[in-house]
Design brief:
By secondary structure, this protein is mostly beta strands. It contains 1 helix and 9 strands; from the N terminus they run αβββββββββ. Bound molecules: zinc ion.
Length: 121
């Protein structure tokens, strides 16, 4: 999986480690400053030395309900576990080409297409 965003993230944070307890795009529950949050891992940073300090593996996490604010930096010890997927508009519904009208519908709406000859009325 390589795209432009991944390249930018690699420039910023370095390549993701091959092994980590949690992976990119996982949804986790974690603590930050004494509060519990959930969020999506947008990047995994491997252990390394930053400005003379040794940093363990840590995660760049977009906290749920925040959009474009600065992401949280979450350490292994801050992670409580994986979280169920948030029910919000980030949920992806596949869009498919309709066999009846050749337009594009959400996959669950194709059977409701007005041109569908098998449509339940
Ligand atoms: Zn249709």
């Amino acid at each position: 999986m390589t795209n432009h965003l991944d390249e930018q993230m690699t420039d910023l944070y370095g390549p993701q480690p091959q092994f980590s307890d949690y992976k990119q795009n996982e949804h986790i529950t974690y603590t930050q400053a004494g509060e519990t949050h959930t969020g999506k891992i947008i990047w995994v940073c491997g252990p390394g030395n930053v400005a003379g300090r040794h940093l363990p593996t840590h995660y760049i996490v977009e906290r749920d309900g925040t959009g474009d604010t600065w992401p949280d930096t979450v350490y292994q010890s801050d992670i409580i576990g994986t979280a169920p997927e948030a029910e919000d508009d980030t949920q992806e519904i596949a869009i498919v080409q309709c066999p009846w009208c050749s337009g594009w519908h959400q996959v669950n709406l194709v059977k409701l297409c007005p041109n569908n000859p098998h449509r339940d009325t």
